[in-house]
Target: ABC-type quaternary amine transporter
Amino acid sequence: MLDFKHVKKSFKNVPVLNDFNLHINKGELFVLVGPSGSGKTTTLKMINRLIDPMSGTIEFEGQNINKIPLHDLRSQIGYVLQQIALFPNMTVAENISLLPDLQKWPKDKQRKRVDDLLLGVGLPPEDYRKRMPSDLSGGEQQRIGILRAIATEPKLILMDEPFSALDPISKKTLQDVVINLHEELHNTIVFITHDMSEALRLGTRIGIMHDGNLIQVGTPDEIRRAPKNSFVSEFFGLDQPNMHFDLTEMIQNSFGIPFDETADYPIISAKTTFKELIPILAEHAVVNVQDDNHHILGTINAQSLVRYDASMANSEVTH
Ligand SMILES: Nc1ncnc2c1ncn2[C@@H]1O[C@H](COP(=O)(O)OP(=O)(O)OP(=O)(O)O)[C@@H](O)[C@H]1O
Model:
């Protein structure tokens, strides 16, 4: 779907992207994560040609984006920004149907689309359709921002830190909205964040950026199991000595997988530490966990660990 090939960019002779290469598959929810100034927004803006690379090429569905008429390119791409950018003088329905209207959809089709989209994110259309943006909470406004970006079902959606200004609870709700929309529509999403727990929660794959370089690309599982260097482990908190981690709690909170008494999985102690567990799960895909009395408490895999850790990170933010 998207290919960055040897892309370089500098601003005033300061390199921002160094020989950037990345392939994003159709249908992925790809998260670009990295600290402030690592080059994430610059990368995203190059996709819809808000910024031009100095060298290298970007391909959209196999075609160099410079060869695609700008209007055609942008009409296939939805864009959700950190700053909520609804038109204040337009109702919710008018904001959402902005692009369908420009594309001259019949009015009844526009109305149906608006209602379906509002229902899909839990906002009753009869209540919300005619509201003005000023009559919505920040989280609701950002939900409308997302609906506006997906109203015409673009092939690609770019999201630049869309939830960073929201409180943790709204943030989690909106993350669920994105996960559900992606599961339903299977569109390709490139999502930027500097929040590692958001990256782990959302990404089907994650690209980690640092100082204009793509340090590692992988699934949340792969990154957890094998962080490429100390920057990645520090960024994802894999080296935190006092990180709260409790295998019994993980199983009690249903992060495990169903116990299979016919399977002969290795058995580990419930007291196994996070650091000890990573190499074990890298070697054995699934393990059983037992308490001091040799009672099996449950079964876990790497996915359990990722989900548990993301939930811990979220609850740390929440409380
Ligand atoms: N138009 C510009 N002119 C000069 N420097 C720029 C310009 N745009 C970005 N930069 C610089 O390029 C670097 C990368 O910026 P970019 O916005 O891509 O980073 P980011 O990873 O998205 O950061 P953040 O998470 O803070 O948004 C930064 O050092 C920034 O100051």
The chain is about 40% helix and 25% strand. The first strand starts at residue 2 and ends at 11. The pocket of adenosine-5'-triphosphate is lined by residues 11-12, 16, 34, 36-42, 194 (CB under 6 Å).
